[in-house]
């Protein structure tokens, strides 16, 4: 079954390239981009447990809420990609789909969640600029509460890559400015919840967040701008295939403390 699934995905991915489709009097060029977590990408893990602590070097991002000694605690995260020249050559209305792909991590000491329940991960557009090395819970920037994307995450499938449709959020970033995404949880008073993903600082580059953007642009616009067709490379297609078929969860194990010498 897995082999047939891989063959099907391989066939599908092979068609995610730059193509030209005919419409009445107008030809459109369909192009897909992968925006990776390179050196210009930023992420910060925030928590009201340590309001003035900066989490820009954290290998994980995500969202959580829990109670401790009568105090309600939560974590949320900021994530931003650098769109480079894309915002100067692509109009927001040309974006037909944008998908945020997050690869889950499972801390070794994390308690098991109730597998019969689902949790909602919410993604919003950040409204103000922020510096990853200076941002903490106390000074975090506001996010747009009017528009959000969300994804129900089943506790039975917490090891599966999470793909969130963020098309409207990315369009707004191209319109009003790119300050990244806020990841948080929904229904904050609900049962304890946690969902962790690899951050842009994770040592495994294959697990870092990526953003998939598909656009449909009149061919004449691409031609006049001197932009050649930009199909996905073989490497891009292989990366997409890994994202959609990664079989095992990644478990992060803290370093083992050195053994104490045996006393006589």
What can you tell me about this protein's structure?
The chain has 264 residues and is of the alpha+beta class. The chain has helices at 2-13, 86-89, 167-176, 219-224, 234-245, and strands at 19-23, 26-36, 42-47, 60-68, 71-80, 95-102, 105-107, 118-126, 143-154, 162-165, 181-185, 193-198, 210-218, 250-252. The strands form 3 sheets. Strands 3, 4, 5, 8, 9, 11 and 12 form a 7-stranded antiparallel β-sheet that branches. It has a 5-stranded antiparallel β-sheet with strand order 1-2-13-6-10. A two-stranded parallel ribbon has the order 7-14. The relative contact order is 0.27.
Produce the secondary structure layout:
Layout: H1 2-13, E1 19-23, E2 26-36, E3 42-47, E4 60-68, E5 71-80, H2 86-89, E6 95-102, E7 105-107, E8 118-126, E9 143-154, E10 162-165, H3 167-176, E11 181-185, E12 193-198, E13 210-218, H4 219-224, H5 234-245, E14 250-252
Parallel strand pairs: 7-14
Antiparallel strand pairs: 1-2, 2-13, 3-5, 4-5, 4-12, 5-11, 6-10, 6-13, 8-9, 8-11
Helix pairs in contact: 1-5
């Amino acid at each position: 079954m897995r082999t047939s699934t891989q063959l099907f995905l391989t066939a599908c991915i092979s068609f995610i390239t730059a193509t030209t489709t005919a419409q009445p009097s107008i030809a459109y060029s369909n192009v897909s981009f992968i925006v990776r977590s390179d050196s210009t990408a930023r992420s910060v893990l925030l928590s009201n447990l340590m309001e003035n602590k900066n989490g820009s070097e954290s290998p994980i991002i995500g969202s959580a809420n829990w109670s401790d000694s009568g105090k309600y605690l939560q974590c949320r995260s900021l994530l931003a990609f650098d769109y480079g020249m894309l915002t100067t050559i692509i109009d927001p209305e040309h974006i037909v789909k944008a998908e945020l792909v997050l690869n889950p991590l499972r801390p070794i000491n994390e308690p098991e969640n109730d597998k019969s329940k689902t949790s909602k991960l919410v993604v919003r557009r950040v409204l103000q600029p922020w510096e990853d090395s200076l941002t903490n819970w106390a000074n975090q920037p506001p996010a747009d509460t009017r528009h959000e994307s969300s994804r129900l995450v089943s506790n039975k499938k917490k090891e599966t890559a999470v793909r969130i449709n963020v098309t409207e959020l990315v369009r707004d970033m191209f319109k009003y400015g790119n300050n990244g995404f806020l990841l948080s949880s929904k229904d904050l008073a609900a049962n304890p919840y946690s969902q962790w993903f690899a951050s842009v600082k994770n040592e495994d580059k294959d697990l870092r967040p990526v953003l998939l953007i598909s656009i449909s642009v009149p061919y004449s616009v691409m031609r006049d701008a001197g932009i050649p067709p930009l199909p996905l490379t073989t490497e891009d297609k292989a990366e997409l295939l890994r994202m959609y078929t990664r079989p095992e969860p990644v478990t992060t194990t803290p370093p083992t403390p050195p053994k104490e010498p045996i006393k006589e």
